[in-house]
Amino acid sequence: MGARRGDKMTLVAFMQAGSTSVYAGSWRHPATEHGYLDASYYAKVGRQLEEGCFDLMFFDDRLAMPGIYDGSVAEAVRYGARPVKLDLGVILGILAQSTSRIGLGATYSTTYYAPFHVARTFATLDHLSGGRAAWNVVTSVNDSEAQNFGVDAHLGHDERYDRADEFLEVVGGLWDTWDEDAIVHDRGAGLYADPEKVHELGHVGRFFSARGPLTVPRTPQGRPVIIQAGSSGRGREFASRWAELIFTGDPGLEVAREHYADQKSRISDAGRDPDSVRICPMAYAVVGESEQHAKEREAALLEDLVHPMASLTLLSELMNYDFARHDLDDPVTDELIASVSGIRGLVQNLRTHIGGTVTVRDLAGHRATLLQGPRFVGTGEQVADQMAEWFHGGACDGFVLAATHMPGSFEDVTRMVVPRLQRTGLFRTAYEGATLRDHLGLDRPVARRPIAHTGPAA
């Protein structure tokens, strides 16, 4: 059965395999544990989230140090602006062994990986985790990443999504090259698998070719879950076609309601059941033993821990634009908006969030502090009630929770917020199934017989 509005809330933990969480000042937080180079650190966080019955933990990724600001990685290294990013395949392998129920997801780029590689990686993870794999699809275009992968020229915005559409077709086709019952294991007859049930893909397209079959049999989930976070019009269309969990970044309730309605309508227009797709904005939860304690925690996070240079470094990386040519208090003009790809939506969100003139400092703070999504502040009960308002108010199907410090943020949520959500019937008290699709209420897809695609080669 597809996920239905009014059912249980989805909770996803937004992870980074590195020195800081998505909040750039987290490494300076006095309660942060600097264990990110130790396997036991990730195992500990995974078990903690599993105790809180989270649906999924997924890892963001970037394939370069931030190096666009002033043409150097120096500021990223100096101020800890996410200079460390570990290989997610290894991290997920650790978590597959140390957890048993929580979903495990990772970001893999359609720009810097091949479809066969992605298909094999996530099919392998799905088997080794017992059906808990998810792939966060990104169409990354960033000069720092390109310079690590020998990419000289990027495709335009819409063409990038055209390429990603074909990428998903190839990956999905490879996942379907094994029938459910292909493996026989008939020792007496010497028959390992039925060759009539293992199929070549034979894809030759505009961007990719892949013969197949995949070297990994059909997985426990049929296919790993697809996550996507496109926010532009073309990105929303892409998500409507492919995504099963959509990750958004809406700063306020009204904006989130509009985004939710628009995205669900697009999913319907794409011929899919809107109730079969979960839409979850990124949010921060700042939880205290009292409301005053929570507000004091929030003030420290907003004012004390993120250096302005870390903010500008991350903003430059996000926008693929060198902000070293601007002062922090320069206003964001129409000329600047027109010259920087991807900045328009961010500026519009900020104008909604803070009102008035938006400065470079505002933009940088949005990227590096706690302004990227809703921020729920208060006691455990107050935070749970704030989350419930969004959930019942037609703004989301749950949340992707980001950490202000690690692992304490998730400890706070599992200890103080989750019990309140459970008492009010909004969140599970135990896992009812074994796979991520079970947790999300998603059908197990039926294998489609691969059909050779031969249409124009690149």
From TrEMBL:
SUPFAM superfamilies: Bacterial luciferase-like. Pfam families: Bac_luciferase (PF00296). One of its GO terms (molecular function) is monooxygenase activity. Gene3D superfamilies: Luciferase-like domain (3.20.20.30). InterPro entries: Diverse_substr_monoxygenases, Luciferase-like_dom, Luciferase-like_sf, NTA_MOA. CDD domains: Nitrilotriacetate_monoxgenase (cd01095). FMN binds at residues 61, 107, 157, 161, 231-232. Residues 27-394 form the Luciferase-like domain. Keywords: Flavoprotein, FMN, Monooxygenase, Oxidoreductase. Belongs to the NtaA/SnaA/DszA monooxygenase family. This is LLM class flavin-dependent oxidoreductase.
